C-alpha cells in the first residue's frame, strides 16, 4: 500500500511537470520509467523506493450526488437539497482535461477559460479544483466530465485557476435546455474525502464570446436546476472567459 501511494505521488509530480511552464525540478519521463519494474513486481517489491517522496494520503473522491448522503456541513453557507446525476461517462481524476475536438464546417466549438472563483474562505481550501460537465434538463451527461488541475494560487478572497476547458461537443449539437456546470471541490482532511463546496452553471443563451461572471449556488449540485439557493448574500462569482471557434 505504501509503495502504491508513493507511485501515486510520482504520478502527481509528473502530471504537475507536464502542466508547468518552468523546467527546473520537474519530474521527468525517465524518472517515471524507473517505476515500471516496481509496478510489475508490486506484490514482491522490497527494495528501497527510488525517489524520496511522501505517499499520497488515501482520499475518497465521491461521485456526483453521492456526498449529499454522507455529510451535513457545519458551515451555514453549505447544505440544501439537490439531485445527483447518473454518470454515463467514466469518472476522471483531477487534472484530466481533454483536447479540442476537430473543427467541422459551419460548426462552433467553445473554449472556456476558468479564471478565478470568489470565496470568503478561499485561503483555507485544500487542493481545490473544478469539475466541468455538460448536462441535459434531466441531469444526464452530454459530454465526458472534465476536472481542472488543482488551482494555481489562492489570493485574498479568490482561488485562481486560469485554465482552458474545451467543451467536447459542437454547440449546435447540444440539446435544448442543456447547461454547463462548474463544481468547486476541495479536500477535507478531517473527513478524508474530496467534497463539493458550491457550484455554478451557464445556460445556452449565455454562450457568447468574452468575459462572463456567474453566481455560486449551495451544494449539493442540482443538475436539474429545480431547487437553487445562492451560496451567500455576498457578491461572490465564478469568473470565466469564452472563446468561440467557427470553421
Automatic annotation (TrEMBL):
Instruction: Supply the alphabetized keyword list.
Output: Developmental protein
Compositional bias, Acidic residues, is annotated for 69-79
Where is the C2 Aida-type domain positioned along the sequence? 98-245
Enumerate the residue ranges of region (Disordered): 69-94
Which GO annotations describe the biological process of this protein?
A: determination of ventral identity
Q: Name one GO cellular component term.
A: membrane
Q: Which GO terms describe its molecular function?
A: phosphatidylinositol binding
What PANTHER family does the entry give?
AXIN INTERACTOR, DORSALIZATION-ASSOCIATED PROTEIN
- Family indicated by similarity: Belongs to the AIDA family.
> So what does this one do?
Acts as a ventralizing factor during embryogenesis. Inhibits axin-mediated JNK activation by binding axin and disrupting axin homodimerization. This in turn antagonizes a Wnt/beta-catenin-independent dorsalization pathway activated by AXIN/JNK-signaling.
Q: What is this protein called?
A: AIDA protein
Organism (species)? Ploceus nigricollis
Q: Which gene encodes it?
A: Aida
Amino acid at each position: 500500500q505504501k509503495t502504491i501511494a508513493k507511485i501515486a505521488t510520482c504520478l502527481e509530480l509528473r502530471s504537475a511537470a507536464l502542466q508547468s511552464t518552468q523546467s527546473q525540478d520537474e519530474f521527468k519521463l525517465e524518472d517515471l520509467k524507473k517505476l515500471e519494474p516496481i509496478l510489475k513486481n508490486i506484490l514482491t517489491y522490497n527494495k528501497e523506493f527510488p525517489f524520496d517522496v511522501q505517499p499520497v494520503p488515501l482520499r475518497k473522491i465521491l461521485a456526483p450526488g453521492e456526498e449529499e448522503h454522507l455529510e451535513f456541513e457545519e458551515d451555514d453557507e453549505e447544505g440544501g437539497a439537490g439531485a445527483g446525476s447518473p454518470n454515463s461517462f467514466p469518472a476522471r481524476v483531477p487534472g484530466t482535461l481533454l483536447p479540442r475536438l476537430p473543427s467541422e464546417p459551419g460548426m462552433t466549438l467553445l473554449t472556456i477559460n476558468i479564471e478565478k472563483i470568489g470565496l470568503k474562505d478561499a485561503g483555507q481550501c485544500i487542493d481545490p479544483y473544478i469539475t466541468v460537465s455538460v448536462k441535459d434538463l434531466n441531469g444526464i451527461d452530454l459530454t465526458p466530465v472534465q476536472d481542472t488541475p488543482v488551482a494555481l494560487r489562492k489570493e485574498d478572497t479568490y482561488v485562481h485557476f486560469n485554465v482552458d476547458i474545451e467543451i467536447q461537443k459542437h454547440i449546435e449539437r447540444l440539446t435544448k435546455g442543456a447547461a454547463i456546470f462548474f463544481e468547486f471541490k476541495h479536500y477535507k482532511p478531517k473527513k478524508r474525502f474530496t467534497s463539493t463546496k458550491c457550484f455554478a452553471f451557464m445556460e445556452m443563451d449565455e454562450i457568447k464570446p468574452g468575459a462572463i461572471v456567474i453566481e455560486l449556488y449551495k451544494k449539493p449540485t442540482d443538475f436539474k436546476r429545480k431547487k437553487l439557493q445562492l451560496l451567500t448574500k455576498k457578491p461572490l462569482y465564478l469568473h470565466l472567459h469564452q472563446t468561440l471557434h467557427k470553421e
